[in-house]
Write a structure and sequence with these properties.
CATH class of the largest domain: Alpha Beta
Number of helices: 9
Radius of gyration: 21 Å
Strand content: 25-35%
Helix content: 25-40%
Order of helices and strands: EHEHEHEEEHEEHEHHEHEEHE
Largest sheet: 11 strands, mixed
Family: Belongs to the universal stress protein A family.
Distance between the termini: 34 Å
Protein name: Universal stress protein
Pfam families: Usp
């Protein structure tokens, strides 16, 4: 089944930027674009707008106008629209389930400092099973120019980052871009060493060569699948979030994983994704890992 790219709009400047980003990506990938808006009926006593059908008509008109505007900029792009009645986060999570990715807007702190996530954005990222891309107001196509990279974080075993790497390589292939794969490492506490881990480290020649070998192994199947995508391997000591942000200035898109962590109060965004979302100057794609952990 071919999935569309879905953009969530609400009339804000941020959501229009997200819609434009989604349209450009749909054109690159040869996919359809679905434009959705979630809304709930709000009675207004001060004005004559208490009728549900009247408000629904306003929303439909706004979504149709946004779709017409983006269609005029991308001839041949298949665009559909949907108005989803209900809580915004719940409806967007549902819309994402049938999408290649969900693209939404987020307020920015400033021209070079990342995103300000509201409760809806946090819930959508935490609960969706599909990639979510966040775009700030003012995002420009020029930021996708040649020479700017798709930066992706890799951690753990190859299977732990498979979905994240797949998204990064597919995006790079569609854009003719380079993938910069980043693996951060830190010195583990002495008590974390075991005879087995010490043996592996000795065989690898030390911690940094061990981490480099792990990154190379994780990238191998994606290099084979996408032989035309240039790849840069980036190994650096430090926290994953800090290392990723240190190369964010080179990125046209930053891709991070999000392990589905369930708690008593619902799903949670991991610390790396949370840090990157709040400080990256470029659009950020958050890709959920397949495995779910309990917290």
């Amino acid at each position: 089944m071919t999935r569309p790219i879905t953009a969530g709009v609400d009339g804000t400047e941020e959501s229009i930027a997200a819609l434009d980003w989604a349209a450009r990506e749909a054109v690159r990938r040869g996919l359809a674009l679905r434009v959705v808006q979630a809304w709930r009926f709000q009675p207004y006593e001060a004005i004559d707008a208490a009728d549900l059908d009247t408000q629904a008509g306003w929303v439909r008109d706004a979504v149709s106008e946004a779709a017409r505007a983006v269609s005029s900029r991308h001839s041949g792009l298949e665009v559909t629209t949907d108005v989803l009645e209900g809580e915004s986060a719940e409806q967007l999570v549902g819309a994402a389930a049938d999408a290649e990715m969900l693209v939404i807007g987020a307020r920015g702190h400033g021209p070079v400092v990342g995103f300000l996530l509201g409760s809806v954005g946090q819930q959508v990222i935490a609960e969706t099973t599909r990639p979510v891309v966040l775009v700030r107001a003012g995002d420009q196509p020029t930021a996708e120019a040649a020479g700017r990279e798709i930066v992706v974080g890799q951690e753990g075993e190859p299977e732990d980052s498979a979905d994240t790497l797949r998204f990064a390589f597919e995006t790079a292939a569609a854009r003719g871009a380079t993938v910069r794969a980043v693996r951060a490492w830190t010195l583990p506490p002495v008590f974390a060493y075991s005879p087995g881990s010490m043996k592996l480290l000795d065989e690898a020649g030390g911690l940094e060569p061990y981490e480099r070998k792990a990154l190379t192994a994780a990238l191998e199947p994606w290099r084979e699948r996408f032989p035309d995508v240039p790849v840069l391997e980036h190994i650096e000591m430090g926290s994953a979030g800090q290392v990723l942000l240190s190369v964010a200035g080179r990125a046209q898109l930053m891709v991070v994983g999000r392990r589905a962590r369930r708690t008593a109060v619902g799903a949670r965004i991991g610390s790396v994704a949370h840090g990157v979302l709040h400080h990256a100057p470029c659009p950020v794609a958050v890709v959920p890992h397949a495995r779910v952990t309990q917290a």
